[in-house]
Amino acid sequence: MADFYAKERTYRMEEMFFSEYACKSISTRGRMREETPCNMRTDFQRDRDRIIYSKAFLRLKNKTQVFFSPEGDHFRTRMTHTIDVSQIARSIARSLALNEDLAEAIALGHDLGHTPFGHAGERVLNELSPNGFSHNEQSLRVVDILEKDGKGLNLTFEVRDGILNHKKSGNPATLEGKAVSWADRIAYVNHDIEDAIRAGLLREDQLPKREIRILGSTSRDRINKMITSIYQESVGKNQVSMGEREAEALENLRAFMFKNVYITPVSMKEEERAKRMLFGMYDYFHKNRDKLPAFYRQLCERFPLEQVICDYLSSMTDKFAIAVFDYLFVPHSWALTERDIEEI
């Protein structure tokens, strides 16, 4: 009985202190495949650990958030963005007495299927794949199928649902999933502003003045303002919503970033280079499936070739994608060996 004390204590604390609208760990809808429960950890805590130790999570540190191959040490990557989202999601969940473990697990897994070269890579694969490509759907595919040599992580329904539905257009089944959806938008808009200013693409005095008056002049102030607004709008209710004024200001800031940072002549020039690389590799592997690594060749027995090529390309880090392209198309004496290619 002592073996189960830690988990049972967590269950009791959740029952005592969580909101009536929180998703309690003991009430999970379970996993796709039955397995022996952990003596110490709840299922959501266990999911969090599985994600952190996955290969896909480790690769996030070398995937673009906004800026391709930034020179400075302090630009965000897909990994640091994920940590930002996790922190904000936990803050929202804590303020509303929701399940922080569930929110954290969803946040840590929400971008596992993201492509190299950020959303530019996602747009390219969406154009190439006959069935389209979306990073949230790919993230679910990563945890369900691709991790652990094709066995998947066998996560709980609630974490899988939150990963799939974290985009603005999604409708998560839990309030914790809704908290992650807000946290994602709060994180990338504010921290992409910081990176754009650091890169010299923006000046602080260029930010829209009305939105800055509403939300604050620094990322810290804006994030605090938005989390506070969510708390005031949602506490004691079966919802996770931001106040109308703050939500409108956030959306306006997001639109400002698309116009002035995400979709600009400079960014589109880099996107065109990424596009040519991914187009070239997609075409090569479509014509030469035998050149795919062994794991992906095996996947072709279960899934269409086009899907498997997208699995492979989206799994790549920026640097690895460049190296594979170099190996396939650039003539020189030494490049990646086939053994190196097999390692991803």
UniProtKB/TrEMBL annotation:
<dbReference type="InterPro" id="IPR051094">
    <property type="entry name" value="Diverse_Catalytic_Enzymes"/>
</dbReference>
<dbReference type="Pfam" id="PF13286">
    <property type="entry name" value="HD_assoc"/>
</dbReference>
<keyword id="KW-0378">Hydrolase</keyword>
<protein>
    <submittedName>
        <fullName>Deoxyguanosinetriphosphate triphosphohydrolase</fullName>
    </submittedName>
</protein>
<dbReference type="GO" id="GO:0016793">
    <property type="term" value="F:triphosphoric monoester hydrolase activity"/>
</dbReference>
<feature type="domain" description="HD">
    <location>
        <begin position="78"/>
        <end position="189"/>
    </location>
</feature>
<dbReference type="InterPro" id="IPR006261">
    <property type="entry name" value="dGTPase"/>
</dbReference>
<dbReference type="InterPro" id="IPR026875">
    <property type="entry name" value="PHydrolase_assoc_dom"/>
</dbReference>
<dbReference type="InterPro" id="IPR006674">
    <property type="entry name" value="HD_domain"/>
</dbReference>
<dbReference type="Pfam" id="PF01966">
    <property type="entry name" value="HD"/>
</dbReference>
<dbReference type="InterPro" id="IPR003607">
    <property type="entry name" value="HD/PDEase_dom"/>
</dbReference>
